[in-house]
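Title: Comparing notes on inverse folding

I've been comparing how different people in this forum approach sequence design from structure. To keep things fair, I'm posting one structure and asking everyone to reply with a full sequence. Here's the target:
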């Protein structure tokens, strides 16, 4: 299963106008420069995280990524013009019984769109955790 989160951040970045103007975004986190993070350290940047895909199969994740980029192209272009950093964080969850995780193929068109918008890609793999064990 795949999750995809767009991380949007920058120094001296006033997130309020974006969050107010784009209330349709599924924000998982918003933070301000200088506020303490979960580890007790001050945030170096202001920003927010947008959930793009959650618990999706590979094909569904790719479709949701494409749809998000199409729907939010104007906002993403504006962020790019203002020098705000964006990174697409793609996470794959791997269960103990899987010999290898499902592959996510990012098409050349999708990669070209991300590059044109100066959106970096981060990929992480995490073991599946059974919350009932805790």
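Reply #1:
Here's my take.
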């Amino acid at each position: 299963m795949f999750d995809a989160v767009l991380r949007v951040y920058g120094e001296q970045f006033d997130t309020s106008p974006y969050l107010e103007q784009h209330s349709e975004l599924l924000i998982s986190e918003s933070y301000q420069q200088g506020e303490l993070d979960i580890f007790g350290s001050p945030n170096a940047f202001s920003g927010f995280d947008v959930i793009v895909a959650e618990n999706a199969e590979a094909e569904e994740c790719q479709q949701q990524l494409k749809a998000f980029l199409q729907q939010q192209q104007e906002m993403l272009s504006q962020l790019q013009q203002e020098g705000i950093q964006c990174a697409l964080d793609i996470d794959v969850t791997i269960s103990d019984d899987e010999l290898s995780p499902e592959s996510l193929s990012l098409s050349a068109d999708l990669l070209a769109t991300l590059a044109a918008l100066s959106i970096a890609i981060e990929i992480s793999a995490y073991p599946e955790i059974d919350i009932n064990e805790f």
